[in-house]
Specification:
With 279 residues, this protein is α/β, with parallel strands linked by helices. The chain is 33% helix and 23% strand. It binds 3,4-dihydroxybenzoic acid and fe (iii) ion.
């Protein structure tokens, strides 16, 4: 049966792609952010994953407001990046792991999760840039990918508790996959940020740090909040932290923190990175 090694959760911001493209990793603005990744990459070198299951929120590239699934699972042979209008370099296509995709879909539908299945899917900065941070400068990705998209864009959103349960169900499904492949779960989004409206620029460091702590000691802590509460606490885009909850749900009870980084701001976002290992 397949094995979940652990998880990596990280913020995503299109400007990261511009910084990578221009080689700004040592620039004083960017260094505290990029310095969060070498320890994670060292852990990945020992973890040797074959597949990554990536929770992220699409931002209008693959799904627009006319058709917005609450939960969508990719089941494509490959996932292409496309120009989403930020001027960031387009990355090579990501190879899919269709056997795991269909196993996840069957398991989740079997557990009464109503999904959208995508046999074609474009992936935006929320998937591509974390991958570029984890495997920099690659022409051919060393892992296969199963994308899982959670709506954080259009009201109404799934509750934090529901998203955590989705993560738990995905954890069960991965562990029941008849394969000896090694799986890392990745979640991208958050932490606190708000890009629009009267509170544009809003960041809540206290909440973010409590949230990161909770993922180790009390992982369902944030599920007690409603979506409204979480938007108030973390901003209209801070709600992307739902991806961290889904990811944590997949890991099970026994975990150990490998590494953590937190830096304010990157673009308009409180940028967090965390690697957790299953014990
Ligand atoms: C920014 C943050 C995001 O989560 C995103 O999807 C786009 C932009 C930002 O801070 O610039
Ligand atoms: Fe985003």
């Amino acid at each position: 049966m397949a094995h979940i090694i652990g998880s990596i959760t990280t913020s995503h911001v299109p400007a990261i792609g511009g910084a990578i493209g221009r080689g700004l990793q040592q620039d004083p603005y960017w260094k505290p952010f990029f310095d969060g990744y070498p320890p994670v990459r060292r852990w990945l070198e020992t973890a040797r994953p074959d597949v990554v299951v990536v929770f992220y929120n699409d931002h209008g590239l693959n799904f627009f407001l006319d058709k917005m699934p609450t939960f969508a699972v990719g089941a494509a042979p490959e996932y292409r990046n496309a120009d989403e209008g930020w001027g960031i370099p387009v990355l090579p296509p990501f190879p899919g792991e269709q056997d795991l995709s269909w196993h996840l879909i069957e398991s989740l539908v079997g557990e009464d999760f109503d999904l959208t299945t995508c046999q074609e899917m474009l992936v935006d900065h929320a998937l591509t840039l974390p991958m570029a941070l984890l495997w920099p400068g690659t022409d051919a990705w060393p892992v296969k990918v199963v994308p899982v998209v959670i709506n954080t864009v259009q009201y109404p959103l799934p509750s934090a508790a529901r998203v955590y349960k989705l993560g738990e169900a995905i954890g069960r499904a991965i562990r029941s996959w008849d394969s000896d492949q090694r799986v890392v779960v990745v979640g991208t989004g958050g932490l606190s940020h708000q890009l629009d409206g009267e509170r544009a620029g809003f960041i809540n460091k206290d909440f973010d740090l409590k949230f990161m702590d909770s993922l180790i000691g009390d992982p369902t802590w944030a599920t007690k909040y409603s979506i409204r509460d979480l938007v108030e606490l973390t901003g209209t885009q801070g709600i992307e932290l739902l991806m961290w909850l889904a990811t944590r749900g997949a890991l099970g009870d026994k975990v150990r923190q490998v590494h953590r980084n937190y830096h304010i701001p990157i673009s308009n976002t409180a940028a967090g990175t965390m690697a957790i290992e299953c014990r």
